[in-house]
Amino acid sequence: MDELNLITMEAEEKMGKAQEFLLEEFSGLNTGKASPAMVDKITVDYYGSPTRIQQLGNISVPEPRLIVISPFDPSVLPEINKAILAANIGVTPMNDGRVIRIPIPELSEERRKEMVKIAGRNAEEQRVAVRNVRREANETAKAMQKDGDITEDDLKQALDEIQKLTDKYVKQIDDALAAKEKDILEE
């Protein structure tokens, strides 16, 4: 029975990671409002090594539609500028020699719909990941029953528990998607 608990705990951990990954992906989506998460994962070539912008300076949001990046080393400003443009997140950075200002444009209706589609694709990828975890856990439990390590009743209980976890995490992913869609579509 301990082995079954291990299987369900491992499945829950993997499903939780899929949900966390989705929330990270969502934080980087442009909703028409400034958020440090839009740029903090962008990597910059800093003296030959890829470095995240958040490690190169302070990222602030002084206004609802403005992100300001103040690098610790001003010589990296052109590289940060280039990396933001290359990330293709729909913004144009402005470099004044000391800081980079990124005005966040109002999203058009077409762009909002496009962002909702991207969010939907991200959510579906993580639903599939959760279902793959379920399939792997079920296969492991069935193999244990086939090998005589657990009884048929234990197998049924394990499969029920794994399905409950799957339903729980798919619902959380659906809820996160609904909240993100609402956030994107609000003007």
Task: Explain what the structure shows.
This protein has 187 residues and is an alpha+beta fold. The protein has helices at 2-27, 53-56, 77-87, 109-146, 152-185; strands at 43-46, 49-52, 57-63, 66-71, 94-95, 100-103. The protein has a four-stranded antiparallel β-sheet. A hairpin with a 2-residue loop joins strand 3 and strand 4. The relative contact order is 0.17.
Q: Topology of this protein?
A:
Layout (H helix, E strand, L loop, with lengths): L1 H26 L15 E4 L2 E4 H4 E7 L2 E6 L5 H11 L6 E2 L4 E4 L5 H38 L5 H34 L2
Helix pairs in contact: 1-4, 1-5, 4-5
Radius of gyration: 22 Å
Sketch the topology as an H/E string, one letter per element. Answer: HEEHEEHEEHH
Helix content: 55-70%
How much of the polypeptide forms β-strand, as a percent range? 5-15%
Inertia-based shape: elongated
Class per helix and strand makeup: alpha+beta
* Strand runs, count: 6
The separation of the N and C termini measures 53 Å
The biggest sheet amounts to: 4 strands, antiparallel
How many individual helices?
5
